[in-house]
Structures are given as C-alpha cells and as structure tokens.
Design brief:
By secondary structure, this protein is mainly α. Helix content is about 80%, strand content about 0%. The radius of gyration is 20 Å and the shape is globular.
Amino acid sequence: MVVGIISALPAAFIVNKVGPKKVGIATLIISIGGSVLGLFADNIIVLLISRVIEGVGVSVIAVLTPSLISMWFPEDKRSLPIGIWTTWMTFSQTICLLLSEPLTNKFGWQGMWYLGIASCSIAVILFIAFVTTPDDEENYAPIQQIQSGDTINSLLKNKTIWRIGLIAFMFACISFTFNVSVSPLLQQNLNFSLGKASLLVAVLYFTEIFYSSSYGLLIGKIKDKRKLMIVTFLCLGIIGLLSFIIDTRYVILILCIFMVFDASNATILWDIAPMSASNSNEISLSVGVLNIGLNSGILIATPLAGYLLESFGYFAVGIAIVIFVIIGLLLIKNLSINIEKVN
C-alpha cells in the first residue's frame, strides 16, 4: 500500500512519457523479477525488497490500464470496459484466498510466489500479443507532448481530481474496515471455522465480478453520477452498520447486499476519475490520484478496524463505517462530474 501511494503519480508521468505498451511490458517483467527475488529470499530484508518491487508493478498497472481504456473508448462508452476491468482486484483476491491453502501445503510459503510468477508471465504474453495503442485518428485520449511542469500545474488546480481522491480514500476506509471485521464476525457469531469464514468471504468478493460488470452497463447510461454515488454511499453506511448489530440469522444476507454496493462505488470511482481530467495528459494522473486515495484508505482502515474490534467491539466498527460514509457524502455533495461537462 505504501509503495502504491508513493509511486502512483510517478507512474502516471512515466506512462505519459514512454507510452502504455512499453511501460506495461516492462512493469510486468519487473514484477516477475520481484517475485523471483522473493522466492529465493533467505531473510526478511530481501523479502521486503521483493515486495516493494512487486508493489511498484501493481501500482503502475493500476494507472496504466484506465489510461489505455480512455484511449480506446469515448467517455460515454467507457463505463462497461472500466466495470469489467475493476474486477481485477476482487478476482485476484478470490483466486489467492482459494489457492493459498493448497499451494502453501504443497510448496510452503513460496507457493504464493509461484502463483505470482505464473500470473505475471501469462500477463506479459497477453500484453505483447493483444495490447496496442490506437492510431491518432482513433485515439480518444492522445498524449500531448507538453512540459511536465505545465501538467503538474494543471493537476494541482483541478479540484475535481483531488476531491475524487478524497472520496476514494473514504470508500477504501469503508470497504476495508468492513473487510477486516467480516471474518471474525462469522467466526464469533456463526461459529464458522477460520477456513470456512475465509471461503465465504472469498465467494462474496467473487460475486463482485458480476456486480462490477453489470454496473459498467448501468453507469454508462447515467449522466449525473454524483446522485448515484450518494445513493450507494448511503446504502453502504446503512448496511455496514446493520451487519454488526442485526440478528445473526440475517448476517450472511446482509453481507451479500453489502457487496452489491461495494462493487458499485468502486466501478463509479474508476469510471469518473479519467473524466475529471481537463486534458488527455491528466487522465493517467487523475487515476494516479485515485490510487493514492484508495491505497491510503486501505493503509489506514486495516489497522484501525483491528483496533476498534479488539478494544470496543463490532458496534464501534459499524459506527466508524457510518462516520466514513458521512464524510464521503459531504465530499460527493459538491462534486461536479457528469458525462457532458467536467470541471
């Protein structure tokens, strides 16, 4: 998460300077190198270095892909491909949760590194074979050769981008405060084993793949995305609080409903971030700011949820989610984003 925060904006400038195709291939190869280093690590320092290298790769890909989608699709057609792409994290989390135990049993802790190397190797092949940058006449977000200083000044003046970054921070706080608390809730209130609770959480997050794709279709037809975000944020607050105070017989149902709105907000944020750019060079930077917000929220929410859970119990976790939702709603209230006018 720390690497993602630090490298998000530099990654955006690199994508603008070098181009998405070359950067994508290089980044995936670097990620493979980081995984190989971790595989043969004989001490914690080397292991941490390998994770930093892998983290740089992930943060660059997270900036690069929305920028590439923006090049291939006009604003009113981006929502579906963005919705499909936003499933990458939930899909990979699900695969890791399902495979971690068998791989660890067979190969030890290195099993997950083998999985990472295999995944990135396949990604490199697919990237080389299929990913291209559109020709100028087909490019909806061409990168202009302008001074980096001008781009930075433009970015700093764009209040919409930074507001979206703060909203993303609040959303990540909501999502991961909930995420950290779900497994203990299932174990304590429903007497689930750790393995069974982890499996259910994996299945729940797997369903977000279908929700995100569906929202991609829906969001593209909605011009005032601000109102949609207000509704989905409100639902997250209500359902997030209910999850920790409702009768245990209904917990799983409530968890399933939470995932529907969790997926919607992620899809909306990834969709509107490129739209907040005042010029095509800002698109990758706007996604970089979004990544800073998301990674910062995860970094803060994960230990905070653990502390609240241990010190005050589940109700305190629910109240924390409500507070994050309220702050998020205040930020969304004055957000000026729609498909026809940005900034």
